[in-house]
Amino acid sequence: MKKLLFILIAFLAFANGNAQILDPAKWTTKIEKKSESNYILTFNVVIENDWHLYSQFTPDGGPLPLEIIFKNQKGNFTLVGKAKESKTRTAYNDIFEVNETFFEKKGQIQQEIAITNPKLTEIKVDFNYQVCKEVCINIEKSFTFTIPAASKTTEIATIATDLTTIDSAKVDTAVTNTDVNKEQVVTPEKVPVLDTKPSKQRGLWSIFFIAFLSGFAALLTPCVFPMIPMTVSFFTKQSKTKAKGIRNAIIYGIAIIFIYVVLGFLVTWIFGADALNALSTNVWFNIIFFVLLVTFAASFLGAFEIMLPNSWANKVDNQADRGGIIGILFMALALAIVSFSCTGPIVGTLLVEAASKGGIAPIVGMFGFSLALALPFMLFAMFPGWLNSLPKSGGWLNTVKVVLGFLELALAFKFLSNADLVLQLHFLEREVFLAIWIAIFGTLAFYLFGKITLPHDSPMSHISVGRLSFGLVVLAFTIYLIPGIWGAPLKLISGFPPPMTYSENPYGVGNSKGGSNASAQILPEGAHLGPHDLIAFEDYEKGLAYAKSVNKPILLDFTGYACVNCRKMEDYVWSDPAILKILQEEVVLISLYVDDKRELPKSEQYVSKETGKEIVSVGNKWSDFQITRYKANAQPYYIVIDIEENMLSSKPESYNSDINAYKSWLREGIDRFVKVK
């Protein structure tokens, strides 16, 4: 009994020690014959809840995109087009300041190939990809497809062997080593669209809220606002009863919503749920949209008016005289056409911005916009007495239009900045971008204070309290932007200007890195300045040797260049004065980047005894070191060790935004080093 109990305890301890090996993406594959020489390779993946697997189309500068390597392609087969993906999600990453594209829950990738070597019997494919939740994991998978025998005339689906990077005998039983399942053959010409609805719908709510505010802004323009009393009076006077007038006004409001929602639906249907999503990082898309927004801004500022043909309005207006529900529908359409010079630029901006989010965002955006536009017509028809409280039309309506013009102009440079970032031209670096915004919002402040007038402005002897108040807000925002040129982070507009690393000087104008105290000191051999100018080593042996020379414990940091939560820990936890002081004075920091693509010298390349994987890059080496030594493969991953390489912390630490908890964990390891020293 004691022996049995001992074995059970040992087994549980062993399982617990290895439970850090994570593999949240499970793959199945098949090959299908399309023609005599062409085949479809299909990769299906099921992803654990809350994990993201990054697409091959996620832009540079953020998490690592999926990389597909066809190992035996040369002389054997050619690729027919780019690998196709099922539905993905795109969301803004405020750490890397890019839109990242990823799979959630499940995904599918298909690649068509054309066989050029009739003697070819198998196809070997490697996947390099990153999956993230609270930690990130860089994973390499190898697949081997067997070419169906030529004598078989029917389409054959075979299962590719998934050579995982983890030995199944050394992994927690909850993690499967080989993802193999037979599947039915599907039509190879079309990639099935998988249902990968995001678990969180905050993106759609934000689109709705912004669109609703935009609709309210459009309501306060010269093209729409004067229509409210005119339209409500028409319904109340032409209707035989008050109830009928209210009913007709409600139908009119619903018709407005219907027209704009249909517009959103058409954009989604014509271009596809994610077509503009994919275009959002395209250089030409961003340049064209920059030109469009500048044109819209010029129209709002009074240079010209963008109008639909008068013949359209006349034809629709004639149909509105028919009466009944059809007539009311045409009245709503007439409003959309007549007010286009004011609403068109706003609708255009909203549609592209919403469509770039993918899915049903254009429909949600148009619903929010039209709801704000329609509500006043319905409410004032129900309560006609409210019309007396409406402000009279006047110059203030044009002021709203001009303010929207300035906002459109500022937004335009965001799209030009996107193109510049992708091309790495460095024409619109952070300082230049901020200088342009300071000029735009500074000019807007002068306009609101009445120091500048534009073509359609009415003469005024004074400015209202509301205009003065808004002018002060804009002026305060302008002043807030100014320190950004000297390196201030400007968290209020995070994501709009280029990142601080994309600037003439990452430390701000007039502040050179060489002038800082941290960089003025002589660095130990093999060290460099890491986050917050911390002395850090990227080579384990050199860092260990230095720790021995100064007799300090080591903070071992398994990280990655494209690890989101690694950057969050550095930006928000390591920056805390108490934590930073510990890192500066009490430990030797060794940061090992598992996604470092630099190739190792041939003499240092090897095959891992733990995983059987070829170790050819610096990142492979540190990843294998983490798996072999600590039975873990996630980042960030922190361990406090002594100069004899013994673990001082009771357990490793991962992503933890609780500063006090992280400090306590650090202190525990450091205090143990002091006691045994």
From TrEMBL:
Compartmental location: Membrane
Superkingdom field: Bacteria
Keyword list, A-Z: Cytochrome c-type biogenesis, Membrane, Signal, Transmembrane, Transmembrane helix
Transmembrane segments: 204-228, 249-271, 283-304, 325-347, 359-383, 395-412, 432-449, 470-488
Gene3D superfamilies to which the protein is assigned, alphabetical: Glutaredoxin (3.40.30.10)
Residues of the Thiol:disulfide interchange protein DsbD N-terminal domain: 33-144
Cytochrome C biogenesis protein transmembrane domain: residues covered: 205-417
GO biological process assignments: cell redox homeostasis; cytochrome complex assembly
Membrane topology listed for this record: Multi-pass membrane protein
Gene Ontology CC entries for this record: membrane
Range of residues in the leader sequence: 1-19
Gene Ontology molecular-function annotations: protein-disulfide reductase activity
Family matches, as PANTHER family: THIOL:DISULFIDE INTERCHANGE PROTEIN DSBD
Record-given protein name: DUF255 domain-containing protein
Organism: Flavobacterium sandaracinum
